[in-house]
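From the pipeline queue, job 12 of 40. The input is one protein chain; the requested action is below.

Action: predict structure.
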Amino acid sequence: MKFSKIVLASLLLCFAAILTACGGSSSTAKEVKNDGEFVPSKQVDMIVGYAAGGGGDLTARTATKVLAEEGIVDETMVVTNMPGASGSLALMELKKRKGDEHVLIQVPNIAEPLWQEGKINAEFSDYTPIAQVATEPMIITVEKNSPYQTIEEFLEALKKDPSKIVISTSSAIDGGEPFRWNSIKEAYGIEKELNIMTTGGQAESFQNLLGGHSDAGMLTQALLKGNVENGSLRPLAVLGDERLELYPDIPTLKEVGYDVTYYRTRGFWAAGDISPAAVKYWENTFKELTESEGWKKFSEDQGMLNQFKDSEDYKAAILEEAPQYQDYLKKIK
């Protein structure tokens, strides 16, 4: 009888130890697999620094929807809009969550506020660029009553008297579009200042052009679609490396001798100081996203190029463009 009690006690102790081990490590087991790989263990927050309905918001919501539907991410992903100061509020929120591997932010271009002196109390090193998932080549476009039929005619008129051509942009003067217009100005040898009309976003800039309140602007394929066919707008040049399938007769600016491109990039960043395993997980996650049929259809419908860059290449591209942008900021001070 005594022997049976000893055996029973030993078995109970072993069982208790197993339960303790399982219960105590359940959270960790979800976050790190046996091979050391990170996987999310709770809700993932997706922050968008702009209002609902815009391009960045649509990109984030489509990405989270496809990731869930394709079974790429099992945990719930919740999109939160945090508009204000050209995305600065969202960037500051992400900075506060240093080391948090369950938060992401949708980032357009190079996150311009980060490179503007005194705009935001943060450094590039406070963040972890994860992946670029798409690009949008911008298109120089004029309104329907414009006298300019070709990009050469437009540039010559712009050089002769830039004050007579109102250029609508989707940002303040320190934004990405004015920066690229300045690059065109310098490439073509235009000495006088351009007549830039700043707006609160792409939709407003588009409406200015469509309504004849401005003479020219940079638009995406998604905004051009239908408006070229009905004669409301006239595209003159693609700011990309190649002509577009939708508009094969429209030349690139490079073709007419001016090496200026402007791709509006769509990417995702994580917080700073996250583990290499988390970086790899999210990097692979967004690569799978770009390979999914749902994302490919979305990219095609939006006129975006489904171009993936991993964390290293994405970061390098940002660091290549940032100094050029900062040089422009010095010129407009």
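Job complete. The two ends are 92 Å apart (CA to CA).
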